[in-house]
Design goal:
Elements lengths: L2 H20 L9 E8 L8 E7 L4 E6 L4 E5 L5 E8 L4 E8 L2 E6 L4 E6 L5 E3 L5 E3 L9 E7 L4 E6 L5 E6 L8 E6 L10 E4 L15 E5 L4 E5 L5 E6 L7 E6 L5 E5 L3 E7 L3 H22 L1
Parallel strand pairs: 5-9
Antiparallel strand pairs: 1-21, 2-3, 3-4, 4-5, 6-7, 7-8, 8-10, 11-12, 12-13, 13-14, 15-16, 16-17, 17-18, 19-20, 20-21
Helix pairs in contact: 1-2
Length: 296
C-alpha cells in the first residue's frame, strides 16, 4: 500500500474513533465511570445544590442552596464568573434555557424565577419574573428543574412526602402555564434531589434514549436513567463516592456532571465502545507498519 494511501486510512480510522468517543448515541449508566473529581470555589458557592450545562458557552453553572450566588465554572471546577443573588432563601433547582438565561427554583416556595446571567452583576428575587409550581411547603418541595428546548417544557422533581415528577407546559414567567404529573414515582429511592432531560444531547435525538430522564436521589446515593413512564432503565451507584451529591446535568457530548454540598464537582464519562478501540488499534497498527516500511 502506498504511504499516501496508508496515511489516509490512518487519519480516517483516527477520525472515526474520535467521533465515536465524542458523540453519545446511546446511554447506559452502567457504562459510565468517574473520570474527574474537583473542588468548587467555596468562597463563591457554599453547599452546592444544583448544576446546569450552558450549551452556548460549554461551561457549567453552579448554585448553592443558600441562594447567595450563581457561579460559572469550567468543566474542572475553576471559577469563571460570579453573579450575586439577593432575596433567595432555599435555592435547589437550576436549569439553562438558552441565550444566557437561567431558571432558579426555590424549594419551600415552589416557585421558579427567570434571570439573565451577568458576571459581576446582581439579581434580586423580588425583581425577577416568576412562575408558581405549587403551594408553599416545608423542606420537602421542589429540588430540581430541567428545561427541554425541543418542547419548551420544564420538568421538576419534588423531594418527598410525596415524591413527584412533574411537567410544566406553556410557562411564560408572567403567571401563565400548567403543572401536571408526569408519572407517580415508585423508584425504590428515599428522595428525589434533581432531574435532567436527555434530549439536550444531540447524539441521542432520534434514538430510544431521547425522551428518558436522569434522576438523582441524595439519600439513596443513586443516579437513575428513567423513562417518562417511570421505568428505571439503568443506574449508577454513588454510595462509595459521596453521600452529599444533590445536582446533576449532562453535556452535549454525554458527559455527566454532578455537584455535592462540600462543594465538589464529579465528572462521569462513558467507557469507549469496543468499536472505537478497534478503530484506534487498527490505526496504531497501520502507523507502526508505515514506520517499519520507511526504515526498511
Amino acid at each position: 500500500m502506498p504511504v499516501r494511501n496508508a496515511m489516509r486510512v490512518l487519519l480516517l480510522a483516527a477520525a472515526l474513533a474520535a467521533s465515536a468517543a465524542a458523540q453519545a448515541s446511546a446511554l447506559n449508566l452502567a457504562d459510565y465511570r468517574l473520570s474527574g473529581r474537583y473542588d468548587l470555589p467555596a468562597l463563591a458557592v457554599s453547599e452546592a445544590s444544583a448544576v446546569t450545562y450552558n450549551w452556548d458557552t460549554g461551561s457549567l453553572f453552579v448554585l448553592g442552596d443558600e441562594g447567595d450566588a450563581l457561579v460559572e465554572v469550567s468543566k474542572t471546577g475553576a471559577q469563571l464568573g460570579v453573579m450575586s443573588l439577593s432575596g433567595f432563601d432555599d435555592t435547589e433547582g437550576l436549569s439553562y434555557v438558552g441565550n444566557g438565561k437561567f431558571v432558579v427554583a426555590e424549594e419551600r416556595l415552589q416557585d421558579a424565577y427567570l434571570l439573565t446571567f451577568a458576571a459581576g452583576g446582581t439579581a434580586s428575587r423580588a425583581a425577577l419574573p416568576s412562575f408558581s409550581i405549587g403551594a408553599t411547603v416545608g423542606n420537602i418541595g421542589i429540588e430540581g428543574i430541567s428545561y427541554e428546548p425541543l418542547t419548551g417544557n420544564f420538568y421538576t422533581v419534588k423531594e418527598k412526602s410525596p415524591q413527584a415528577v412533574q411537567v410544566l407546559s406553556g410557562v411564560d414567567f408572567g403567571g401563565a402555564g400548567s403543572v401536571a404529573s408526569l408519572f407517580t414515582p415508585s423508584l425504590g429511592v428515599l428522595d428525589l434531589s434533581d432531574i435532567q432531560v436527555l434530549s439536550t444531547v444531540p447524539g441521542l435525538n432520534g434514538t430510544a434514549d431521547q425522551d428518558n430522564l436522569l434522576l438523582f436521589s441524595q439519600e439513596s446515593s443513586l443516579l437513575l436513567e428513567v423513562s417518562r413512564s417511570g421505568q428505571v432503565l439503568s443506574q449508577f451507584d454513588f454510595s462509595s463516592l459521596a453521600g452529599d451529591v444533590e445536582g446533576v446535568t449532562i453535556g452535549t457530548d454525554g458527559t455527566i456532571y454532578l455537584v455535592g454540598e462540600k462543594p465538589e464537582l464529579f465528572v462521569l464519562t462513558p467507557v469507549p465502545e469496543p468499536e472505537s478501540y478497534a478503530l484506534l488499534l487498527a490505526g496504531l497498527g497501520l502507523l507502526g507498519w508505515i514506520s517499519r516500511r520507511k526504515t526498511a
